Amino acid sequence: MDIVQKAGLVELSWTAGFQVVNFLILFWAMKKLLFKPVSEFMANRTNEIESGMKKAEDKNRQAEELLSDYKNKLSNVEEEGRQIIREKTKVAQVKYDEIVKEAQEEARRRMEKAEVEIEREKEKATAEIKDSISSLVVAATSKVLNKELNENTHKELIENFIDEVGDGSWQN
């Protein structure tokens, strides 16, 4: 052994051979018992991660679709709101116009009624004035003529006087 060691060569012994064989048996056993389950575990884990990533992508896509749908619905709701406001504004304008028209019609009717009332009061006042004037004319005429007038003469004088007063010719 000394010569082999002096030459720098490695001496092979049975122990080293057994160690190599033991190592190979251990490697094979580990490969069968440990590497295969670990490889399967790693493959399963990789599949689970990929499946989770795919599910996450699907959920993300669904969330984006929902967001897009909600945005569309929101814009539709906003447009419907604007449409409702426009319709209600039109209805309010129509009601406003109707109320104004009714108020104007009521004012016109009241004005006509007032004009009729004024005309009636004017005629009443004119009739009262005619009666008063008739009495005054009869009294004045009676004094001037110093006599009583008969009914026909009385009516004739009154009508002539009223015609002159109505024409304004008595002022000339």
TrEMBL record:
Identify the species of origin.
Answer: Anaeromicrobium sediminis
What keywords are annotated for this sequence in UniProt?
Answer: ATP synthesis, Cell membrane, CF(0), Coiled coil, Hydrogen ion transport, Ion transport, Membrane, Transmembrane, Transmembrane helix, Transport
One cellular component (GO) term of this entry: endomembrane system
Name any one GO molecular function. Answer: proton-transporting ATPase activity, rotational mechanism
This protein's assembly is summarised as: F-type ATPases have 2 components, F(1) - the catalytic core - and F(0) - the membrane proton channel. F(1) has five subunits: alpha(3), beta(3), gamma(1), delta(1), epsilon(1). F(0) has three main subunits: a(1), b(2) and c(10-14). The alpha and beta chains form an alternating ring which encloses part of the gamma chain. F(1) is attached to F(0) by a central stalk formed by the gamma and epsilon chains, while a peripheral stalk is formed by the delta and b chains.
Keyword Coiled coil in record:
yes
Mind telling me which residue stretches traverse the membrane in this protein?
Answer: 12-30
One matching Pfam family: ATP-synt_B
The cross-references to PANTHER family, in alphabetical order and at most eight, read: ATP SYNTHASE SUBUNIT B', CHLOROPLASTIC
What this protein is reported to do is described as: F(1)F(0) ATP synthase produces ATP from ADP in the presence of a proton or sodium gradient. F-type ATPases consist of two structural domains, F(1) containing the extramembraneous catalytic core and F(0) containing the membrane proton channel, linked together by a central stalk and a peripheral stalk. During catalysis, ATP synthesis in the catalytic domain of F(1) is coupled via a rotary mechanism of the central stalk subunits to proton translocation.
- The chain's coiled-coil residues are 46-131
List localization entries. Answer: Cell membrane; Endomembrane system
Instruction: Please give the name of this protein.
Output: ATP synthase subunit b
Member of which family? Belongs to the ATPase B chain family.
Primary location class: membrane
